[in-house]
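Sulfite exporter TauE/SafE family protein
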Amino acid sequence: MNSDLIAAFFIGLLGAGHCMGMCGGIASLMNLGQVSSSRQWLNPLCYNIGRLLSYTLVGAIIGGSISTISTYSGINEPLNWLKLLSAVFMLLLALYIGQWWNALLWFEKAGQGIWKYISPLGQKLLPVKHPLYAIPFGFVWGWIPCGLVYSMLTWSAAAGDFINGGLIMLAFGLGTLPLMLAVGVSAAKLNQVAKSLLFRRVGASVLLAYALFQLYQGVVRLV
């Protein structure tokens, strides 16, 4: 398996605590007023399916667009610069997950202007009357401004084609899935583990080492 996909999944797993902060309140609304035990799982699952679909789609669009531009222009150097940029974002992401530096939050503010036009589409789907309605709701909510998602999109941009661009975002989304499902069914113990500083910093240290390696490789490609 591509090492980038493994790393993307790992980042999703580590960054799920941030996802819980951004989307946890919304995810918990999926079961508002539900008494059926089957729906306790089905509504959050459908919501997260929609969320992962949005990640995969935007990753494929960005990866495919950059690849097409590079192919028709006959210039491959922009891809090398994008790979270097993705390594820088990975470094910022590791520092953010480890709670050493929150520079990544600056990029979330940049998306607030667009989000105010998108969010009303999701609000029209509440309350969720059927599990299938949770899929489009999750799809809309997948566009919420998130520095974690933006950093992963730089990987998609440098992926080389639309398939790999989409797969990177899908792998990232799958990494966030266990915790986001846990929010939907109120699995408090799992939530506590993901939010623990030790868990975050051990994972962030591994990611930091990987980011530095990718940064080194990116510099070598350009020299």
